[in-house]
Amino acid sequence: GAVVSQHPSWVICKSGTSVKIECRSLDFQATTMFWYRQFPKQSLMLMATSNEGSKATYEQGVEKDKFLINHASLTLSTLTVTSAHPEDSSFYICSARGVNNQPQHFGDGTRLSIL
Amino acid sequence: AQSVTQPDIHITVSEGASLELRCNYSYGATPYLFWYVQSPGQGLQLLLKYFSGDTLVQGIKGFEAEFKRSQSSFNLRKPSVHWSDAAEYFCAVEDTGTASKLTFGTGTRLQVTL
Known about the structure:
The complex is a heterodimer. By secondary structure, chain A is mostly beta strands.
C-alpha cells in the first residue's frame, strides 16, 4: 500500500518552455502533498506544501510564479515549471501524506534537464 | 527551528558486517523521526518511523533504530549488511505542528564491499 506515482520520470526540453510534473497517490487519499528539489549528491530541499483545494505554501526563496503547484484532488498534485531555464535542471520529488499521522510516501522523482 | 545532523557522509562496510548510521536531531518537543533510503535516480523509501512508545523500532529489510532522548539521537542499525543495501540513507524529523514538514539530514552514502 501507500504507492505514489510520479510522471514523467525524465524530461528534456528547450529553455523557455514549461514543464508539468504529475504526482498521484494510487491507493490512498493524500490530504497533503509536498514537492522537493534535490541537487546531485545533496539532500532534499522542500519547495512547497499543498493541501487539496487550497493554495500551496511555498518555502522561503522559492518563486511561486516559477513553480506553479496545483492540488486539485485528493489523489493528484501537479508542479509546473514555467519558462524553464538551465538552472532549473534538477531532480524533483513529490511526496504524499494521508490522514492520521501517516508518514510521507515518496514518488520516484522526475529528472528535469533544460537545454 | 528543527535540524538533523548525519555526521558521516560516506561509510563503507563489508557484506555481512554490522552497520550503524548516526543521526542527531534538534527539536523542541518530542519528535517524529524517520529513516528513508534512496537508490540512485530513485525516490525515497520509508525504512522505519518513530512517533512514540517503544524506543527501539523495527523497520523493513532488517533495519532497526533506537530513539535516545538524552542523546537526541536516532541511529539506524542492521546486524548483517547485504550488498543490495548500498544506497543513500536519510534521517528526517517532522514538524509535529500543522505544517507536518520534514527536515532531512544531509544523508549518508553506504558502500558495501564483497
